[in-house]
Write a structure and sequence with these properties.
Blueprint: H1 2-22, E1 28-34, H2 41-56, E2 61-66, H3 74-83, E3 88-90, H4 93-97, H5 115-122, H6 125-136, E4 139-154, E5 169-172, H7 176-184, E6 188-191, H8 197-202, E7 208-211, H9 213-218, E8 227-243, H10 244-249, H11 252-286, E9 290-292, H12 296-302, H13 304-311, H14 316-328
Parallel strand pairs: 1-2, 1-3, 5-6, 5-7, 8-9
Antiparallel strand pairs: 3-8, 4-7, 4-8
Helix pairs in contact: 2-11
Length: about 325
């Protein structure tokens, strides 16, 4: 009797062990927030990241994507990343620079003629240095996406020379470099959340704004702005970040899956962004937007003081390295 009971107990234990081994490991649920509209390359890449992370982890990593500032504006999402309240964010250069000042170095006026020129730096040692600084502030830099070269629009007049900006009320994101650029050009900068920008332009709270063409188009700002100037005044990246607190909870295998997914998402986002600009410019012209191509040399001269100010500031050594490398390419 005792022997039969012992065998049954042994068998039950063995079956339990087999089931435990066969059971899938616990699902890792992650939330990815960003401020762009659905259809924007930032959103398409975020969805791609979720798909690849799930595939690479055998279905264990589930990423929920929250677009259109559903989880707050970029600044709020950076704070949430640092506290661990949010896992991932495709954020903005300016908002991240408030936590990691070195990001501002890439926002120097007229430093890059194209996003490709900036990525040569970001994919090398200067980008590694940026990742190290990010980690010190609780942020893991998984990739640098493209937020395009920024252009200016307004509802009052065509912008051809720097003087055309004098007195215009221009909306800028929470980015200290853009505030400095507008000041140097004689415009009055105002910070308004991107989600509220369309209405602010429509109601005349501000005269104009500046954004990459993809944002200008996706949010239909052309409906309330008929003058578009291809100023190319600033490159901006979209840092793709993970909370270090979330990163530290992952297994080595999951970290590998996340990094591989981030690499694929980064490649897709940059490709979509590059393809979008040419197509969008033609579409905007067809919608009746008046496009001008200002004298960049005059604008660069008018904003030279901005570069000098940042090179003399707290992150001056890093700014100088970025500016020198940009000029060398």
């Amino acid at each position: 009797m005792h022997r039969t009971h012992f065998i049954r107990t042994l068998l039950a234990g063995s079956i339990a062990l087999v089931f435990a081994a066969a059971a899938p490991a616990q699902t890792v649920k992650l939330t990815l927030g960003h401020g762009a509209a659905i259809g924007n390359p930032r959103h398409e890449a975020a969805v791609k990241f979720a798909e690849v992370a799930k595939a690479k982890s055998g279905g264990r990593i589930e990423v929920q994507v929250a677009p259109s500032a559903q989880l707050g504006d970029d600044a709020a999402m950076v704070t949430a990343l640092r506290t661990g309240a949010l896992d991932l964010s495709a954020n903005s250069q300016g908002a991240v620079a408030n936590a990691v000042p070195e990001y501002a170095a890439y926002g120097m006026p007229f430093a890059f003629s194209s996003p490709a020129a900036a990525f040569k730096l970001l994919d090398g040692p200067l980008g590694k240095e940026l990742a190290d600084r990010s980690a010190e502030k609780g942020l893991v830099l998984l990739g640098t996406w493209d937020n395009g070269i920024r252009q200016m629009s307004n509802g009052k007049r065509a912008i051809v020379r720097p003087e055309d900006l004098k007195g215009l009320k221009m909306r800028v994101p929470p980015d200290a470099t853009l505030v400095d650029i507008m000041k140097a050009l004689g415009a009055e900068s105002q910070q308004i959340k991107f989600a509220e920008l369309y209405v602010a332009l429509q109601q005349g709270v501000v005269d104009g704004q500046e954004n990459p063409l993809v944002n200008f188009h996706a949010s239909k700002l052309y409906e309330v702005q008929k003058h578009l100037a291809l100023t190319n005044h600033q490159f901006q990246m979209t840092p793709f970040l993970m909370s270090k607190r979330s990163w530290d909870k992952l297994s080595d295998a999951d970290r590998k899956a996340v990094q591989e997914a981030a690499a694929e998402a980064t490649a897709l986002q940059r490709k979509l962004s590059a393809e979008a600009d040419e197509k969008l410019l033609a579409e905007l012209k067809a919608k009746g937007v008046q496009v001008t191509t200002p004298d960049k040399a005059a604008f660069a001269k008018a904003t030279a003081e901005v570069v000098a100010k940042w090179e003399a500031g707290p992150i001056g050594p890093y700014v100088k390295k970025v500016v020198a490398a940009a000029q060398a390419h």
